[in-house]
Request: fold
Amino acid sequence: MKILILNGPNLNLLGKREPGIYGSQTFDQFFVQLQEQFSSIELTYFQSNIEGELITKIQEADDLFDGVVLNAGAYTHTSIGIGDAIKAISTPVVEVHISNTFGREEFRHQSYISPNAKGVILGFGLQSYELALQSF
Reply:
């Protein structure tokens, strides 16, 4: 099984950005742990702050991966294009968030991803990714 983990804007700052919300571990450090924990799954990781690059990766995933774990960051709440890309592919996508977006600002309560996702996992810190991987 091949799974793409796709992170959006500002997730390259994990470990530095708001550690009270996002923790002190970088995603690169965490990704090594995921690879060890899920050694039977071929994991690929990509992060971008650019919406179009995320859309391209989602489109490419349809031919290359059995599933996508997507944390689109702030694009979750603004990007109709990412939502449409997920709707256009047959590969299942699990939406994840490190924080509980419903416990944060009102604008974070809207997701353009959720209606087209296999499921949504949020609020469990980096463990949200582990739970998403277990769903495949």
The first strand starts at residue 2 and ends at 7. Strands lie at 2-7, 42-47, 67-71, 93-97, 119-122.
